[in-house]
Design goal:
The chain is of the alpha+beta class. The chain is built from 10 helices and 11 strands. The longest helix is centred in the first third of the chain and has 45 residues. It is elongated, with a radius of gyration of 30 Å. The two termini are 41 Å apart.
Length: 379
């Protein structure tokens, strides 16, 4: 395999800052020269305050203080060219004070920036602990996942997904906790832990769903304040994909049905019979309370799991995101490319900001020769 010449990546941040420093320094020189050449009744020295103000926008307090000191020196030089008056003194002191204020606010901004970086680090660590990244392959399946948090600077919220491989196939779950913030993260962590523990203990999806509902109900009963009883719940979709049967089995607990992307850009919405979300009932659920729905899932097909943050995203006119319509044009894409296109299109539709967390999981059955083997009549 041949490679082209190495590309030069983006310059480090400190190099970009020093390159931008040319702007305020050039302004100091230009303003000083213009003031010295201007008639005596025209005073351009006060404009020197622009230099530290501009520096503060891209640099830290040290470079801001340096630029401010040069601006004050330039103001003193301007005043030395004429008879030093009280007006010159006032301008000099005012510029020094404004420079000190600019440096002070630059210090505050730098401190907030460090705090924000710490928050981001904690958020990313929480995401890695709670939402384990899905591997590119789970048995014969190709998979990819995407999480978009609605909270500013957050990496995780109340949406969740998980996948477990067993001897006969794969089991997956996608869910959505009602609400946002730390409470939603805690409930998501509970369900993820319960799923990873119970998925190996129950042979059927209804038995697994009943076990998860009992776990969530116990948690909510013990930790939810009395005035919020009945207001917390989690929707979830449990998925089972056997290796050799060509089907997908699903149990919905109040969660939207997935999209099944088939040949010739077809998009099918499986007919599910959802049970109530986890945490709604008495906490005494049994397998008989849940239904298993089955759909064909052949080579070349893609199953797209999602949360309601995707389909409820609105544009500036209030219209919902036309999810199935948009996805149909990318049905031949591999899982990672498919989610990349959805992410870009969804954010454009929503104006760059989602009103709710959104999670997607794409599951693809690859073919040996790159062609679909499923008959076009099998929908």
């Amino acid at each position: 395999m041949t490679h082209g010449p190495p590309r030069s990546g983006p310059r480090p941040l400190w190099q970009r800052r020093y390159a931008l420093l040319v702007i305020p320094l050039a302004l100091i020189v230009l303003i000083s020269v213009a003031d010295l050449l201007a008639p005596q009744d025209i005073h351009l020295g006060p404009l020197l305050v622009i230099a530290p103000a501009i520096t503060c926008s891209f640099a830290g307090p040290r470079l801001t203080a340096l630029t401010g000191a040069l601006a004050v020196a330039a103001q003193a030089l301007i005043g030395a060219g004429d008879e030093f008056t009280r007006n010159n003194a006032v301008q000099l002191v005012s510029l020094a004070l404004l420079t000190c204020l600019t440096v002070f606010f630059s210090l505050l901004r730098e401190r907030k920036g460090r705090q924000l970086e710490q928050v981001r680090s904690v958020s990313e660590a929480a995401q890695r602990v709670l939402l384990w990244p899905l591997p590119d392959r789970i048995g014969p399946l190709r998979t990819a996942s995407l999480y978009l948090a609605a909270e500013e600077e957050a990496q995780i919220g109340g949406d969740l997904y998980a996948a477990i491989r067993d001897d006969d196939g794969a089991r997956m779950m996608i869910g959505d906790v009602r609400g946002k913030g730390l409470n939603a993260v805690g409930e998501a962590a509970l369900l993820l832990g319960a799923f990873r523990e119970a998925v190996h203990l129950h042979t059927t999806l209804p038995a697994l769903a009943a076990s998860l509902d009992r776990s969530v109900s116990r948690y909510l009963a013990n930790l939810t304040p009395d005035n919020e009883t009945g207001e917390s719940f989690i929707t979830a979709l449990l998925v089972e994909i056997p290796d050799r049967e060509g089907v997908v089995r699903m149990t919905s607990c109040g969660h939207p049905a997935p999209l099944l992307l088939g040949p010739r850009n077809t998009v099918t919405l499986p007919d599910l019979h959802p049970a109530p979300p986890f945490g709604i009932g008495t906490g005494e659920a049994t397998p008989d309370d849940y239904t298993v729905d089955e759909a064909p899932f052949m080579s070349g097909d893609t199953l797209l799991l999602y949360t309601d943050g995707v389909i409820e995203a609105r544009d500036s006119t209030g219209d919902f995101y036309p999810f199935a319509q948009r996805v149909a044009q990318w049905s031949d894409s591999r899982p990672e490319a498919l989610l990349h296109r959805i992410r870009r299109d969804l954010l454009v539709h929503a104006g760059g900001h989602l009103g709710d967390d959104a999670a997607l999981v794409a599951i693809h059955v690859p073919t040996r020769d790159g062609r679909r083997t499923r008959a076009t009549t099998a929908q």
